[in-house]
Structure formats: C-alpha cells, structure tokens
Task: inverse folding
C-alpha cells in the first residue's frame, strides 16, 4: 500500500482536470494502477481519492460491519456508494474530476491536493483554508489526542 504525503496548490482546468502531483505518482506502489476511486468525503466539503487497493480495503471493512438486508445498513450503503466514481489518469497524468462531484464540493480554479496516508483529499483552496484550525487549536488537539 502506498503512503501519500505532501500538499500541493494546483489549478483545475475548465474541463475539470488537474495534473496529478508527480510526488504522488512516485509514491504509488508497484501494485497500484493509475485508476482511482473518487468519492465525496463523508465529513468535509472535499473529495477523497483512493487507489484501487485502498478502496477495496475500505469496502471490505464496510461489508464486514454491515448487513445489506438490514434496511438502515442498506440505506447507508446506498448513500456511501452514490457519490463515487472511478477515474483514470490520462496520458498527461491529469485526473478528470466528474463534474457533479466537483460542483458538489465547490471545486473551481484553485485547488489544494493533500496526501493523507492511503488517500488523497482534493479541496477548493478557499474551503481548505476556511476549514483549518488555528495553530493553537491544532496544538491543543494534538495534545488531547496524542497524550491521553
């Protein structure tokens, strides 16, 4: 499994394509193809990009915890998979973000692409800046989460 690290300020073109950071290409494992799953994030106004292998792991985790014959579980599964698309890098290493997903999270010209271990987040630059905690709040959060 690959571990994506780094953050990049990138422009997205009018067709919804952006150049996939070369650093991320170098972080792909030999088992990973240039086909990804893009999904609206569950909690934030951004998109999450998964390699095929990390997506399969997430799906297996979900399948192991939910019963598709349970009405509530089935409703969750429907919503979880609804805002998802499979995408592939083109010959210029650009990733085409499906228009409906880009519109849902407000991607326009300036985007921020962030490596978060086994996934990548794609944000509108403004939405990302608006969501960030202050340095003091981040320090307090780190202490709360890591020292207890």
Result:
């Amino acid at each position: 499994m690959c571990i994506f690290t780094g953050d990049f300020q990138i422009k997205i073109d009018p067709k919804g394509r952006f150049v996939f950071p070369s650093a991320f290409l170098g972080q792909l494992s030999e088992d990973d193809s240039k086909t990804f799953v893009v999904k609206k994030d569950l909690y934030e106004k951004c998109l999450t990009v998964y390699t095929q292998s990390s997506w399969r792991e997430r799906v297996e985790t979900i399948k192991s915890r939910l019963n598709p014959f349970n009405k509530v579980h089935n409703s969750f599964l429907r919503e979880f998979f609804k805002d998802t698309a499979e995408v592939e890098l083109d010959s210029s290493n650009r990733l085409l973000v499906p228009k409906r997903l880009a519109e849902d999270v407000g991607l326009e010209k300036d985007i921020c692409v962030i490596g978060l271990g086994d996934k990548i987040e794609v944000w509108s630059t403004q939405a990302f800046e608006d969501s960030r905690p202050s340095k003091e709040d981040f320090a307090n959060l780190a202490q709360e989460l890591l020292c207890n």
Summary: The helical segments are 22-27, 52-65, 71-82, 99-105, 125-131, 135-146.
